Amino acid sequence: MKNIYLYYLSFFMLFPILGQSQVKSKLWYDGNARVMYNRDALEGTLKETDTVSTRSNGGGFTILDLGFHFTPVDDIEIASEIRLKNDFGGMWGNKSVVELRRLSAKGVVNNKIAFSVGDIYLKQTKFTLYNYEQELSEYEPSVFRFYRDFVNYENYYQSNYWRLQGVQTNFSYNMYNFIEQLDFDGFAARVRGQEWMGKPELLMIGGSAVIKSSNNLNLGSHYVNTFEILSSSNSSVTYYNPVLNTQLSYSGTLKDKPYKVLLEGGFSKRGWDGDSLAPEIKGNFMEASIHSKSKKGEINLGFRYVDTDFRSTGAQTRRINYNNSTTTYPYYSNNYTQRKVSLIDMMSDPNIYNQNLSTSLMNYNPMYSSISPYGNATPNRIGLTADIDNFNLTDYLSAKVQTQYFSEIIGQGTTNKRSFNKSTLHSLLSLDKLLSLKNSFDIEGSINIETVKRGGDDFEKINLNSILYSGSISYELMKNLKIIAGAKMFYAEGNEFIAERDIYDQINDFEDINYDSKETILIAGIQHHFTEDIYFTMQYNQFNVLDKTNTYDEFSLGRLIFMFNMNL
User: Fold this and answer.
1) Above 70 in pLDDT, residue 15?
2) Got the DSSP string for 305-343?
3) Residues 80/88, Cβ–Cβ less than 8 Å
4) Contact of 448 with 139, CB cutoff 8 Å
5) Do the beta carbons of residue 546 and residue 36 sit within 8 Å?
6) Predicted confidence band at 68 (pLDDT cuts at 50, 70, 90)?
């Protein structure tokens, strides 16, 4: 408790000094402030039958993440971010937390070589190092944005980067012949620290080299290696996973329409030194795509092949960890049943998300994501993709369309192969433009359909179908003050075989699971935007989850929520 008061005292004592430095342009600030309160209450039959759980519970917090950027000289910047958090119900230091959220330094050597040390954000290609979006978040109506912003911010998800601790450097070299520019990037990061009597230290090193030519032809090579340090523990076994990716792209125009062709391929190797029982597997991948853009919209066509044994720690780590416990009513009913992660939690609970890279394939729920549970790097896939983005049908109606068709390369547990289909449509209708209204009036709708099928005998057949309907209405009552309403309805029915893997990710058994689930999310309230990044919303949410494979497994919840968000 005394430490907390000392933190506060130091902060307020230093604040005038920091303000004085601001005048000298040596120090500037950014960050985020958020106030959030919600009250959850059981609803439906559960309210009457569950005599163990609380009827309702509420909670909230005030958070200030204050970022300091100090520039002692022009080419050096030291950045830190301090979080001040006070849970509702606590005053004068009670239930208050002061913690260091971020610390890094960056600079430029001789105006040529840039470097970053400390907390760094890393991203390469979709097969080497990439943080994929959570399932069913694509084409989500904008009225659900406040939940998505909250979840992503709390887990350091920024534009598909992974946040790691280490050092990064990059530089460019300009030329004047056929080769116009050479770009280089390298990094070393610590994925897992030393553990007392535990696993060895896990590091990741990587680099990129890109050659840009004068005829719009670019060649890039990207390398990542995740490996353990033998001397950092008493273990005699160490893990390694190098991945190499090579990309060739060409940009041009055809009938005054720009296009870009991208070809890429690579391979991976994965094994355990010092373990005679561990396999060493090698995999490869290949992808080709073409992108074109016009006034009406953008179109992408692609082909993808990912080998069964392709493994990439940086690209196959998932955001959602289904082993984490939910924050809201983790247990319910008189049987004290543990509640499974559902669409409710995927949308609003930051605690079920993962911030650490995983050296093994994480579990996933095929009901929510079966086509590409590990993004483009999902192993054992071959197929085609097509999507149309920002398709402007008229000045008041736009749409986005995506379709994917994949098949397994090798059947799992049988010679028959699964086939995967996914179709997604999102549309935005601006009624204010259509009806010439002064205030904005938007209607959004989307649909996401996924199917998994496999033929054969009855004991090996698979037929899983899932569909998500989403919609929203947003009407501006007065300037920047909107009344909003939204809904999500999710259905899943069928069966799928879940692979059970050993410590080496080798399949040793399958579990046949039946699905018959329905989930509903309804929201309604008001929202006011002071700016794009400063807003508040107050609304009522209603959630319902019904698993028909278990007649007692129904969960209903009502939530009153207020959130004020401000990006500094």
Assistant:
1) no
2) EE-TT---HHHH--SB-TTSPPSS-SEETTTTEEPPP-H
3) no
4) yes
5) no
6) very high
- Longest CA pairwise span in the chain (Å): 78
Burial of 409 (C-beta count, 10 Å sphere; 0-12/13-18/19+): middle
Paired tokens of 198: 């535990």
Tell me the one-letter amino acid at 337: T
Distance, CA of 56 to CA of 59 (rounded, Å) = 11
The answer for residues whose C-beta is within 8 angstroms of residue 19's C-beta and 6 or more apart is none
Q: In the structure encoding, which two tokens stand for residue 252, read together?
A: 């041009």
The pLDDT, as a whole number, for residue 90 is 64
Of all helices (H) and strands (E), which one includes residue 8? helix 2-23
Q: Kindly indicate the confidence band of residue 197, based on its pLDDT and cuts at 50, 70 and 90.
A: low
Please compute, for residue 562, the number of CA atoms within 13 A of its CA located in the half-sphere on the CB side. 8
Q: Are 100 and 81 in contact (CB under 8 A)?
A: yes
Q: 281-293 and 257-273 as β-strands: parallel, antiparallel, unpaired? A: antiparallel
On the 0-12 / 13-18 / 19+ scale of CB atoms within 10 A, 55 is exposed
DSSP-derived 3-state class of residue 48: helix
Express as a percent the part of the chain with pLDDT over 90.
Answer: 66
Write out pLDDT tens, residues 198-247. Answer: 789 999 999 999 999 878 899 999 999 999 998 888 888 999 999 999 99
